Amino acid sequence: MKLLFQIFCLxxxxxxxDAATTSVTVGGQDYTVxxxxxxxDGNASQFQSTPWWNDxxxxxxxxQATSVRNVHYAYxxxxxxxDYQKSNSSGxxxxxxxxxxxxFKYAVSAVAVPAPLPILGILPVVGFxxxxxxxxxx
Length: 138
Fold this sequence. Notes:
- With 138 residues, the protein is α+β, with helices and mostly antiparallel strands.
- It is built from 4 helices and 6 strands; from the N terminus they run αββααββββα.
- The chain has one domain.
- The strands form 2 sheets. The chain has a 3-stranded antiparallel sheet with strand order 1-2-6.
């Protein structure tokens, strides 16, 4: 019964979620970028916490690395307008300015994806865990 309830909740989350994600590589670092249909108004703090905020060239790099069409990377505001770089899904981007109240598909967060540990880097961790288990048993 618990499993059935979890599956039901997962289905509802997927159905009602507005946000989507895509993977990009910028400057040799992999990121998971979340984007959603929203406006700048009312979400200013979310936009201002992105790594490309106040950096038009970084916003352009993210837009060019995005394989999803029309994702807007807002990087600054002035008066009641927002400047952005928009992805074109083929390695290019377009700069633009629009009203802060306009709704577009905006990138709202980027999380750096850690590099996988090499096999040799895992061995000391495994050895440490074995020693810890021996100590606990003693």
